[in-house]
Amino acid sequence: MADHELTSRVQGSRDIELIALRERIAMAAAQGQALFGRPTDRPIAPYGCRHCGIPRDEHGQQWLAGVGVHGWEAPTDRQILRRMQIRRDLRRIRAARLEDQ
Fold it and tell me: pTM for this one?
C-alpha cells in the first residue's frame, strides 16, 4: 500500500471520528448534560489547555486522568479549530431550542 493511500485512510477515519464526536457533543448539549466536566451553558474555550480545555487564566495546576498534574499547555491548531466548530454547533442548538419554545 502506498504511503498516500495509508494517509488518506487515516485521515478518513479521523474525519469519521470527528463527526461522531461532534454528534455526541451536540446530543449531550441538547440534553443539558455536562461536556468535558463543564456545564454546557459555559462556552468551550478554543484556546484552553491542550489537555483539559481550561482557559489559561483559570488553570493553575490541574489533575487529569492519563495526564496527571499539569500546567496550562497551548492547544494545537487542530484542537482550536475543533473547539470553534463545537462552539458554533452549540450556538445553533441553543438557537433552535429557543425557537422551539
Answer: 0.56
